[in-house]
């Protein structure tokens, strides 16, 4: 049964958007012209090929062939990642703004592998290779980006994007009136994590330690507790996560009745 409050962080949507953003500033240089930015959009390869091969003579606005070169990308698969699975009882604290006594607790995220395909369409090899050769040096074969709020509010997650294969296809068939389409297909896998439910828990701000010279000492009949005691306490105004600016007080021989 599903329980608890969940982060509606739209993991897949964020990951796909980040993937597309990586390639949104690719440009080509045409002979005797200035640089031209290559448009990119989400969509299936078959639909773009159908648009490219559309007959533009006497066509309506809905069937006009698209301008090349162009880049498209799409989500192709989603599978559980057994290799990076961790103990499901692991948990992490996420600070709550304005509350230094409690924190949101998120248990171990579930790892998945998303398959992505990037397609480069061009009318000639020169333009296609200009695009592909700007992409390949970035992946060797992995490129890691940091995504905010992927595992809960206030988190930052490193997301590896791995290039797995590069394919080439020249769809030039038929007579001379048929429009040519050179397509490079680049396949990637992206390792993401899905966050589960979130709960609110109190933070430990004081730790008391008692030292004894006899493991059988009865606490109830030996006061003060043990031969020595130590209290480590976080400052009242300090909040998680702690750093060098926070105050941590260590008291030896504190009054156990406090």
Give an overview of the whole structure.
With 258 residues, the chain is mainly β. It folds into two domains: 5-200, Myoviridae tail sheath stabiliser (STM4215-like, 2-Layer Sandwich); 205-252. The chain is 12% helix and 42% strand. It has three helices and 15 strands. It has helices spanning 11-22, 45-52, 125-135; strands at residues 5-6, 27-29, 35-37, 40-42, 70-80, 91-96, 99-107, 110-122, 142-148, 156-170, 182-194, 197-202, 206-211, 228-234, 248-252. The strands form four sheets. Strands 4-5-8-11-10-9 form a six-stranded mixed beta sheet. It has a four-stranded antiparallel beta sheet with strand order 1-12-7-6, with no helix packed on it. Strand 2 and strand 3 (35-37) form a beta hairpin. The radius of gyration is 29 Å and the shape is elongated. Mean pLDDT is 78; it is low at 56-61.
